[in-house]
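thought: fold this chain, then report.
action: predict
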Amino acid sequence: PDNKETADIYSNMARAYAKQGKEEKSRALFQKAFGIYCRTIGPHHPSTVKTKEVLEWMRQDAEDKTSQPTNQSRRKEQQRSDDSDCIVS
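observation:
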């Protein structure tokens, strides 16, 4: 069900996967949590904001590893600045 407690569980699982170096699994769970937070507690709640920051950090870290942002990531960056607070790549 879509509620804050479910999102909290996804977020905690994502942190555990991140500590194990399982970035793709971690990112997927953070994205699930972020979507639920946006729908249930809104874009300005601290849990939503923190999860968005983590996802943006993960995206930036992945770009840094490739050392060259793609055209798609540039478009998403522009979209983030143009759209609502609940959009993240």
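thought: worth noting. Residues 3 and 55 are 20 Å apart (CA to CA).
final: tokens above.
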